Amino acid sequence: MRGRVFLAGGGGPAHSRPLDVEFARAVGPGPLSYWPVAFDSRVHNYDECLAWFRRLYEPLGVRAITMWTGESPLDLTGVRGVYIGGGNTYRLASVVHRWRMLDRLRDFVASGGVVFGDSAGAALLGADITTTAHLDRNEVGLDDTRGADLVCGHGVFVHHRDNDLPREHVWSATYGRPVIALTERANAIVSGHAVTAVGFDPLILVHGGTRRLLAPGATTYNNPASV
Q1: Domain residue spans of the chain
Q2: Using CA atoms in the order 161, 185, 8, 189, what is the torsion angle rounded to 10 degrees?
Q3: Which of 1, 24, 35, 79 has the fewest other C-beta atoms within 10 Å?
């Protein structure tokens, strides 16, 4: 994997600011493709979402920002970064699966592209989106819950709270995958086999019945072939 994957725990711009800065630096002036499709367009106005996103990233130097609304496949040729926003993870995955965009995301990262996942977006970039089953309702009737699997073989739990730890242990044992759990103040950058904690809270790493913390600024190395 030549590119990098950015994961935000879902606490909003105040808590993801260090990650936003790093992502903007990686993207440069753009083009950056923003995906609000985890939101129901009947409830959330996508143009307003785009205006919010521009207010967030233009001051960081990203000027060429476009939006994918999930109405047709997206060609990522020439795009430097993809930002996948939060919302309902099942809705997000249903749109992405409909247009077979997971393979495009994998190819994009393999060729050096950078992808940011916030909340639902972070869960999608992991091994399987059932990590959010306790948070989101599957109102779209999604059967295929596979994620992009761009996080060293891990499943990604977002909005982590202390009482989620037993759930994360069960998920890890059931799926035979390690877990990265992110509080709303925790973020991560994945590059190849390296996972680096970024932000204010440590990452929580769950596997094989054990739990360990990765302090902000620290890096751990994982081989996905071994999980």
Answers
A1: 4-226
A2: -110
A3: 1
Fold adopted by 4-226: Rossmann fold (3.40.50)
- Please state whether the predicted TM-score (pTM) of the whole model is above 0.85: yes
* Angular region, 133: left φ>0, alpha ψ -120 to 50, beta rest: alpha
Residue labelled with tokens 């950015």: 6
Cis omega (within 30 of 0) for bond into 13: no
Report residue 73 CA to chain centroid gap.
Answer: 19
Weakly modelled stretches of the chain, pLDDT under 70: 1, 223-227
Contact indicator for 102, 94 with CB cutoff of 8 Å: no
Burial class (CB in 10 A: 0-12, 13-18, 19+), 203: buried
